[in-house]
């Protein structure tokens, strides 16, 4: 089988490597418009449950990821000078570049053709030349956009602004942060992805963003191409949390999050994968996991339906792919929607006592309940235990 993958993120690479393992005689080509390793973002976070799934299905990748990951068990909420901690959760994070390097190596070992720094050929040409074309080109997928009616695409761009940064401080937990500017709350979350660095994401509604002076036009860039004023201003706003540590960017600018949904994930021999098919708000950290799960399921169904040895049409496999992945993605998107809406309306929770505020934050998406959080709650250096 000849397969073209447009987009060299974790989902596209993982699919390519599995297909070649299942069908060593087949041809798989991945086009990635950016150079190898040139990527946005910093750390990728996984729950222990997700890692267990990787360990069971792909122990070699699990071992490689585990050797390069930071692990922690707590969630901390920093609010109005107090810290409330919830113990016993279990997470790990790996640098996005590290994860990509592992997947590049997997693809190379499997015989996948990787074409970095190249825009994929026109999709009509790919559809004519390949048995299957996979659009793994992200939330702003050009392939999907050109066929939005066929896929039944809906795009919901939210009003809040966010910026993705890193800090040279290894946090010891998934840490939610709240800073009040006097005209509204800015909130963020941080988590370690190496021994020296943590991801640091900040979000604010339009009013708080403007009131904090963050709406100023970009007047200067850092060496990595980030909005210099935003980086410096956020260091001031979150000074108590940063403890003198510095923020860094990676072409970091203020953006608005877009929720991507599609009624159908395939058309003929063209299929959507990962963020091209669906997005989940970064506050629940599931985007990379969902993309890699899409990839594993799609590769397995192509094998099980006899497509990889030339004996079956992709259509049945693609229908099964939508049916298999649709419910899991819908559940994740429901949790993500509840989470993003809670943060958009964070002002409604401001003024609560620290323990109550933390409880509402931790249960916002429905993934944690009162029973999941232990009863003893003390503020400042205390925990749900």
Describe this structure in words.
The protein has an eight-stranded mixed beta sheet with strand order 15-11-14-13-12-5-6-19, sandwiched between helices. The protein has a six-stranded mixed beta sheet with strand order 8-2-1-9-18-17, with helices on both faces. It has a three-stranded antiparallel beta sheet with strand order 3-7-4. Strand 17 and strand 18 form a beta hairpin. Helix 1 runs parallel beside helix 4 (96-110), helix 1 (10-22) packs parallel to helix 11 and helix 2 (48-57) packs across helix 3. The longest helix is centred in the C-terminal third of the chain and has 31 residues, at 314-344. It has helices spanning 10-22, 48-57, 59-67, 96-110, 123-129, 142-145, 148-151, 206-211, 228-237, 239-242, 287-304, 314-344, 354-362, and strands at residues 2-6, 27-32, 43-47, 70-72, 75-79, 82-86, 91-95, 113-116, 132-135, 153-157, 161-167, 174-180, 185-192, 198-204, 247-248, 258-262, 266-267, 270-272, 382-384. It has 385 residues and is of the alpha/beta class. The protein folds into two domains: 2-40 and 58-68 and 94-157 and 259-342, FAD/NAD(P)-binding domain (3-Layer(bba) Sandwich); 161-256 and 348-384, 2-Layer Sandwich (D-Amino Acid Oxidase, Chain A, domain 2), CATH 3.30.9.
CATH class of the largest domain: Alpha Beta
So, the CATH homologous superfamily of the largest domain? FAD/NAD(P)-binding domain
For the secondary structure, the number of strands is 19
Average of pLDDT: 92
CATH-level-2 architecture of the largest domain: 3-Layer(bba) Sandwich
* Share in helix: 25-40%
The tally of domains stands at 2
């Amino acid at each position: 089988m000849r397969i073209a993958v447009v987009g060299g993120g974790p989902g596209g690479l993982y699919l390519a490597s599995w297909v070649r393992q299942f069908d060593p005689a087949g041809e798989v080509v991945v086009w990635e418009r950016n150079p190898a390793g040139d990527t946005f973002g910093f750390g990728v976070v996984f729950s222990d449950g997700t890692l267990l799934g990787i360990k069971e299905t792909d122990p070699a990748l699990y071992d490689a990821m585990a050797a390069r990951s930071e692990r922690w068990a707590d969630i901390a909420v920093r609010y109005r000078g107090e810290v409330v901690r919830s113990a016993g959760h279990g997470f790990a994070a790996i640098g996005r570049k590290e994860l990509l390097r592992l997947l590049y190596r997997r693809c190379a070992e499997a015989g996948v053709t990787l074409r970095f720094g190249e825009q994929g050929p026109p999709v009509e040409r790919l559809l004519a030349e390949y048995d299957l074309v996979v659009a793994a080109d992200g939330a702003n997928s050009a392939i999907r956009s050109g066929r939005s009616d066929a896929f039944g695409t809906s795009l919901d761009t939210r009003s809040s602004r966010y910026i993705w940064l890193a800090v040279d401080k290894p946090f010891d937990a998934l840490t939610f942060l709240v800073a009040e500017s006097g005209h509204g709350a800015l909130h963020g979350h941080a988590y370690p992805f190496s021994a020296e660095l943590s991801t640091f994401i900040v979000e604010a509604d339009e009013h708080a963003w403007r009131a904090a002076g963050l709406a100023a036009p970009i007047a200067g860039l850092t060496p990595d191409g980030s909005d210099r004023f935003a980086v410096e201003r956020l260091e001031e706003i979150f000074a108590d949390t940063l403890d003198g540590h510095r923020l860094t960017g990676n072409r970091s600018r203020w953006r608005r999050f877009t929720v991507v949904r599609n009624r159908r994930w395939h058309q003929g021999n063209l299929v959507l994968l990962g963020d091209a098919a669906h997005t989940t708000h970064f506050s629940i950290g599931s985007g990379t996991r969902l993309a890699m799960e899409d990839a594993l399921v799609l590769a397995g169904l192509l094998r099980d339906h006899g497509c990889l040895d030339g004996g079956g049409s992709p259509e049945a496999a693609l229908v099964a792919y939508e049916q298999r992945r649709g419910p899991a993605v819908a559940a994740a998107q429901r949790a993500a929607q509840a989470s993003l809406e809670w943060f958009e309306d964070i002002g409604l929770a401001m003024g609560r006592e620290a323990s109550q505020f933390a409880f509402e934050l931790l249960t916002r998406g429905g993934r944690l309940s009162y029973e999941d959080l232990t009863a003893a709650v003390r503020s400042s250096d205390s925990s749900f235990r």
